[in-house]
Amino acid sequence: SVPLAFFGGVGGASRCGILVKGSNYLEALASVDTVIFDKTGTLTTGTFSVTDVHSLKLDRDQFLELAAYAESYSDHPISLSIKEAFGKPIDKSRVSDAEEISGKGVKSIIDGKAIYAGNSKLMRSLGIDEFPETESATLVHLADEKEYLGYISISDTIKKDAAAAIQGLKDAGVRSAVMLTGDRLAVAQKVADTINLDAFHAELLPGDKVELAEEIIETKKAKGNVIFVGDGINDAPVLARADIGVAMGGLGSEAAIEAADIVIMDDQPSKLSVVIKIARKTLTIAK
Ligand code: ADP
Ligand code: MG
């Protein structure tokens, strides 16, 4: 039977905007060793703003239009930001096919012509090896079947409470806070330094994230549980693999909210140490 105190704990978490889907997760939370975070939408807001447009052939507006059309069917935070920057309605009848290339970008057929938008991995898969990559920003490269067209430089903002979230975990006795991301090394490095993470891994494909999480779970298991916190876009398998999967409720996909054990309704990563503290207190009362 479930001790009465657990109901109190789940209720207390709920009053703080944290949905805990079962009292067993409170027990698991009380002995957390490592927290793994996804970057985009979890530690950062996921609302990218366009900082630079570098087009080789088209003028700025035409280039932005092509990028927005290439992204027309994607729900990725990068895609939403590019469509926002374009700012005009998209005539989807011009897009006859669209394909998401997980962890790399998108391919769309626009006016009968294939257009690719995504990162360096996507460009290399097209046989394009030469493109600028100096800035420490997220770059969305654009190419057609024949050639490289240029890039849009975008940048995301670290969430206001991200540094406090990491500090809060440390104060709650969590040994290690790690970030996994598909974004560039330079971008990841900046986030890791700013919020004081213990470790990070960048330029990962969704499959790499699962592998790394598994490695962490298997080698650190003896010391305690592993939490994964994500938004469900390209990271749902990791969410399912962790001892405790936490989804951001606001930005997160419906599938992520469904798959998660715990949902942070207002997307604040600092709520994690709040719920760990509630779990510890609940356990003390229950014993
Ligand atoms: P993360 O959440 O760790 O940033 P994702 O796996 O969602 O990683 O994406 C990894 C990388 O793949 C992004 O940083 C971006 O370079 C590229 N990417 C993914 N989806 C898109 C998209 N719709 N348009 C352009 N690039 C994309
Ligand atoms: Mg993601």
UniProtKB/TrEMBL annotation:
Compartments, record wording: Cell membrane
Family assignment from sequence similarity: Belongs to the cation transport ATPase (P-type) (TC 3.A.3) family. Type IB subfamily.
This protein's name: Cd(2+)-exporting ATPase
Species of the source: Hominibacterium faecale
